[in-house]
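Recap from last week: sequence in, structure out.
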Amino acid sequence: MNNRVAIYIDGSNFYHKVKELGLSNLVKFDYRSLSKWLAGGREIISCRYYIGIIRAEEGNEKGQELRKNQQRLLSHLQSSNQNFVVKNGYMMKSGGVYHEKGVDVKLAVDLLVGAYDDLYDTAILISSDTDLIPAISKIRHLDKEIEYIGFSHNPSLGMQKYVNRSRLLTVSDLKKFEFTSLF
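Predicted structure tokens:
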């Protein structure tokens, strides 16, 4: 049985999907327990969280608040009780709208390096980004397993088609990982 698991979370994708489900404070969320639950007793060798870093413009109060909350989230993820490796991309403004850059590439590279270097038997991927399908296909070609973790209200049929196993999270699945008080 495959027993070494690496967890990869696309932070922006996770944030937006969970927010759509009505959970709003992801700083008060037990990512480590979610990871253990998803691993189902298998050995977790790595937990990684990928996110575009907010750079707030001077005088932009909303941006400053978003940056402050993101810093709290990153500190929480890297704390000893969560123990996540955080991989940073950046946010780029184009046409008045911010876009995350560099995150998908880092995620795809880490998935592939882990497969080529035999760091895991199974990658558990929380992302509905179909841009990752070429990496997923290569991982499967290397005889590694990949599990897609999506969301019941908005699954990615494209992702489900290319992985070994998929699981769709519901509100009740996620609610059990909310902290009632952390700070």
